[in-house]
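Inputs:
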Amino acid sequence: MTNITDRGVEKLRTGISSLDIIAKGGLPKNRTTLISGTAGSGKTVFAIHFLAAGILQGEPGVFVTFEESADDVKKNMRSFGWDLDKWEKEGKLTFVDASPDPEIETVEAGGFDLGALLARVDNAVKKVKAKRVSVDSLGAVFSQFSDQAMVRGELFRIAMGLKGMGVTAVLTAERTDDHGPIARFGVEEFIADNVIILRNALEDETRRRTIEILKFRGCDHQKGEYPFTIVPQGGVIVIPLSAMQLSMKSSNVRISSGNPELDEMCGGGFFRDSVTLVSGATGTGKTLTVTQFLQGGAAAGEKCLLLAFEESRDQLVRNANGWGFDFEKMERDGMLRVVCDYPDLSGLEDWLVTIQKIITDFKPKRVALDSLSALENVGTLKAFREFVIGLTSFIKHQEITGMFTATTGTLMGGDSITESNISTLTDSIILLRYVEMFGEMKRGLTVLKMRGSAHDKAIREFTIGKGGMQMGRAFRNVTGILAGAPMHVAPGDVERVWAQYDRDVGDRRRRAEDRPAN
Amino acid sequence: MEVALSKYVLTLYVTGTSPRTKIAIDNLNRICSQELAGRYELEIVDVLEHPQRAEDERILATPTLIKQLPPPLRRVIGDLSDKDKVLLGLEVRPTATSSSQAPRNEAT
């Protein structure tokens, strides 16, 4: 169970679950893997997480530190929920503290090697019967000694030695640039069998962490950069996008949108594990659609989660009250949880992890996010897309029904960045549009897309009042609503167009019937 | 303070019986007999046999010579082939016969 063979090279399931997905089973067993990254890219956290995850699944570890002292490492890692002190006392973890001691003056007088270091690592591995070793970082060894050639040779020897000890090792190394040479001293990548690169790139004034498996000698892995984040009480969390999309189920169970007329337009309601995008200009009724959706869930005895990034809790409660829905009661009954926050508080990767955690804890059957557009500017477009993919696949996996809203920039018609980027990711799209008719703004609703189901193609007028959304008639004699330029067409013209259409279709059908069948 | 009274307590950490170990031990014995005759104690520790001692002393490189006494604690790494550096590292004032810097002998 712990080892997954992959074309001959055995892999060690690291226990960093998302890493194991992109590494197709884990790190190559009994080999060394170089973790290279710029300052602040999360190398040390990765190195410790590797050991912590091992200890939690019964594999003791050794941490070799060349940079920070063992005490500093213990202190810094406490916030991740890893009690290194306790593990050390229990004999599951031991340190080889090779950090420079400023109090000891050292003079170099003649040739030397790092035999003592190797002996110490070997001793530590034997002492706790270690299965994993982390070395942090190789670059710091170079700065402790003047003879670089010697250090190079010795690091090779230590890497070879680690293999002989039957441990799976992670070695960290600094690089100066996110897209330059693999590591600063130009030799680190040759020391290890495998190379993983951590990046913390600055794009559009936001930081984005990615992890890339550059090479796994002799075995397979997912290619390319994957976003990851580092969270308190969690450590390194990779977001394995490609792997997520592979195993989605599909449900035929329908659930109510909270509005019987809208259900009817959707061909009987939303699918159980579908994600619906509600798009419209400000004030067209997106939040109302969401509120109805939540109300419908609570009425059916399903727990609902509302992630609100645009309005405060008080505003939401007041608005819901205005439509005749009691959010506070729903919350008291435990049917609803409202999470309100400023979107800019953390990066999109962090939001994804936070939201996943809330969902895992609360276990809702419905999740609404109002609005996606508020998150659009938190990161780059790529990060945003990844966030939506990540969230969509996560909630689908849990058989949760999702509803996201997107705000269009223009009042009439138009689309938004949100919409054009994620419309392919959602199962259903509901458009809410203003329709100007004879000097009056009316609201129109249409179900643009309903994956796997027939739906009403009409643009229906609706009004908002006590009790929510009331559907009216279809706009039969208006064209150009979605283009943002509604034009009133005389009823006679409409009839003529339809009559012409019927005639054409009739002609075609007749011609087809006249043709001899073969 | 009388020079003769200060006793040197030295520990040399080596790895196994490599050629470098042998060179270091020979060099150290020579330096000690020339400069510290009769006023030193030397212990040689093989880190392969006693890795925990290397751990406790936080030693990375071999050979490493540690001067425990007299204070301050000093470390010299390498095969000790550079005698001047060794004496500098141990803060041993060279005797008249062995060093080019003899004139500073009686300075204090």
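The CA atoms of residues 32 and 40 of chain B lie 7 Å apart. Flag for discussion at group meeting.
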